[in-house]
Amino acid sequence: MKEKVFLAGAAGAVGAVLTPLLVESGYEVYGTTRHLERMDGMREAGAHPVLVDVFDRETLANAIECIAPSIVIHQLTDLPPGLDPKRMSDATVRNARIRGEGTANLVSAARAAGCERIVAQSIAWAYAPGATPHAESQPLDLGTEGARAVTVVGVAALERWVLSINESGGIGTVLRYGNLYGPGTGRDAPQGASPLHVEAAAWAALLAVQRSTGGVFNVAENGAEVTSEKAKRELGWRPDMRLQQHVAQ
Questions:
Q1: What are the chain's domains?
Q2: Known SUPFAM superfamilies for this protein (predicted)?
């Protein structure tokens, strides 16, 4: 019997790449979307589409209970097409809600269904000012203000929820992704202080499912403001990984 994966955000930039990687690796993938028109594309990628909003706690909990996955992957974001700067202010607030309330709903539903293996997307640019490259042990910038504070507080809430399952013997893994670029991200070339190709991000999630024993991992290209040596060492991840490569075993 195939191991079941509940992929929240399967139609997003990372989720759309991750779905075929998981399917090719032998997992039975149940992918969520809020948009009916995206369901056919998810089926074509080999996933079972699940139409659900992460803020609908009851429907989400019922879906996860019925599916009974052994792994939940959180790749949910709410960003405008092309990362339109005119719409990013509102997107920052929506993303913070997903990271806080949405993650709480997802983790609570997973645990109620008996699933204690969770991999979640976080970000690599929420560290407090300090020596670079930033390592996972360095603190988040919780003393910041304004729009950045909204983002960092949301990130802290997401990570707290995901890592809480480690206290009861589960495996909660947080992937602090760098600045994504590539298909579906709105950026064709590397940008930001810690760039990361979307396909390399998807590979990190697959490897976390297969190899992580829990904790936080920076995931960004060489020369970034963060060090990804832990992900390379413990997960076998490399920043040049792409979709066309053979699936890891």
A1: 4-235 (3.40.50.720)
A2: NAD(P)-binding Rossmann-fold domains
